[in-house]
Structure formats: structure tokens, C-alpha cells
Design goal:
Helices cover 32% and strands 28% of the residues. The chain is α+β, with helices and mostly antiparallel strands and 106 residues long. The strands form 2 sheets. It has a 3-stranded antiparallel β-sheet.
């Protein structure tokens, strides 16, 4: 189901939330590429096998700081949270680079 949704939406990194804990918290990130490059996906395998820790950033962190943190951890997506710890959404490295440098055309 995850791979089907990722294919439909063009996702390469998918945040995974724990819906049982109110409010739902992001527990990690699944790299679709990592699953696909591992061979034939087995739908019976638990999602936890592919779960990587999420990089969590505060909503008021400067983009340059977030970009440096992403570079240091190798993450291409970060979860943005508010002061209370509630996840607001995600930000991709590509989006930060576009905001800092503008649209790059080769």
C-alpha cells in the first residue's frame, strides 16, 4: 500500500505517524528508494524494518540551519513541529534550496 501511494504521488520519502498516540506523532521516515533497491518488496514485512529516525526541526529555525542539519544527517526531508511538539508538516531539501537559490535551470 505504501509503495502504491508513493508511486501515485511521486514520493521518495514518506513520514510515518503513530495514529494511536494523540496527537499523532511522526515516528520516522521510510525511504521508498531503499525498499525498491533492496529487491522485490515483500508486502508481509513490517514497515518498521524500513523506518529511519525522522529529522525534527522547529518551525522558527532558519533555513540555512535546517539545510546544514540535513546535510549532516543525510536526510532529504525533515518534520517541522511547533512549540508544543505537534508536527505541522514536512520540508524537503529541494524546497529549501529553491527558496535560497531560486529555480535552477541547466
Amino acid at each position: 500500500q505504501l509503495l502504491e501511494q508513493a508511486r501515485r504521488h511521486g514520493w521518495t520519502q514518506v513520514p510515518v505517524r503513530n495514529l494511536a498516540a494523540p496527537p499523532a506523532q511522526v515516528v520516522g521516515i521510510v525511504s521508498v528508494d531503499r525498499i525498491l533497491f533492496a529487491g522485490e518488496p515483500d508486502p508481509a514485512q513490517p514497515l518498521e524494518r524500513w523506518l529511519e529516525p525522522a529529522l525534527v526541526v522547529e518551525q522558527n529555525e532558519r533555513l540555512e540551519v535546517v539545510l546544514r542539519r540535513m546535510q549532516g544527517t543525510g536526510q532529504v526531508v525533515a518534520v517541522v513541529r511547533d512549540e508544543s511538539g505537534q508536527a505541522l508538516g514536512t520540508v524537503r531539501r529541494e524546497d529549501i534550496l529553491k527558496l535560497i537559490f531560486g529555480e535552477l535551470r541547466l
